[in-house]
């Protein structure tokens, strides 16, 4: 049975590869090192990067000397990753189904992908399936509800009075977007030695570039909702966005905005 949220996600990200690479990929790059460290992705290991996007995690894993496979649900993202990381075997795949045999990998990683699936528990179980017994899994997600840089556009829309439409679903992951919830998800899915920690950093952006490559490029649900509005409403949201981001302004015209995420890791049980 097709999950309605997954259908929405395919429509959401269709054709967004270039815009994502220019904007959000720079934000999510901060957690690449910690993610690979948590999974034990070192030279000689066989690594699967799930939700690879433009291939940032896969590229770093290749640099570490790992043998890398990568998947993404959006064909444009997979095509971009394959071009960016020619040493990785990149395929199109949609969780919770992966085109690999049981116990194929020493490490599985997913950078901000688990919050984009319709069935989080089933998806983590599938990630465990392709791990060898004792292999390690590492996943990141945003702290929910969004704060810092993830809240800039949403808070501006809220202030203007833009309502969340009924046909734009909320991520099923919202209940897991906190340390206790994420840890509970790992345990329910069968992960052992699970650990969840908060990761925060300061991200430097050009405010206009962030606006153009994010909401106005229809990246993410906020972008979908905003671009449906009239030009007058969009202009008002932009004015509020400009005022809010000015609080983080730097002398050179950029802005330093906090980002807050969770890094979860654990292992497939050694006996199975």
TrEMBL record:
Alphabetical UniProt keywords: Methyltransferase, Transferase
A GO BP annotation: methylation
- Domain of life the protein comes from: Bacteria
> Is Hydrolase included in the keywords of this UniProt record?
no
Pfam families linked: Methyltransf_11
The Gene Ontology terms for molecular function here are: S-adenosylmethionine-dependent methyltransferase activity
Q: Where is the Methyltransferase type domain?
A: 48-138
Record's keyword annotation contains Methyltransferase: yes
Protein name (record): Methyltransferase family protein
Q: Which organism is it from?
A: Thermomonospora umbrina
């Amino acid at each position: 049975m097709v999950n309605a949220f997954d259908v929405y996600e395919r429509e959401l990200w269709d054709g967004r590869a270039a815009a994502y690479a220019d904007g959000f990929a720079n934000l999510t790059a901060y957690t690449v090192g910690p993610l690979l460290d948590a999974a034990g992705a070192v030279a000689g290991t066989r690594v699967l990067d799930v939700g690879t996007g433009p291939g940032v995690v896969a590229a770093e894993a290749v640099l570490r000397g790992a043998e890398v496979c990568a998947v993404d649900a959006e064909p444009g993202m997979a095509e971009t990753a394959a071009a960016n990381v020619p040493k990785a075997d990149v395929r199109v795949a949609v969780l919770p189904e992966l085109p690999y045999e049981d116990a194929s990998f020493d490490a599985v990683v997913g950078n901000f992908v688990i919050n984009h699936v319709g069935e989080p528990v089933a998806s983590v179980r599938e990630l465990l399936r392709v791990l060898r017994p004792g292999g390690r899994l590492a996943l990141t997600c945003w702290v929910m509800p969004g704060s810092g840089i993830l809240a800039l556009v949403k808070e501006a829309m809220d202030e203007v009075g833009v309502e969340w439409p009924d046909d734009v679903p909320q991520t099923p992951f919202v209940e897991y977007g906190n340390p206790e919830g994420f840890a509970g998800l790992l345990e329910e899915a069968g992960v052992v030695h699970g650990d969840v920690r908060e990761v925060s950093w300061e991200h430097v952006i050009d405010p206009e570039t962030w606006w153009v490559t994010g909401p106005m490029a229809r990246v993410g649900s906020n972008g979908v909702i905003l671009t449906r509005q009239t030009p007058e409403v969009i202009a008002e949201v932009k004015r509020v966005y400009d005022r809010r981001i000015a609080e983080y302004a730097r002398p050179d015209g950029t802005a330093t905005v906090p980002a807050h995420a969770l890094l979860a890791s654990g292992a497939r049980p050694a006996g199975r």
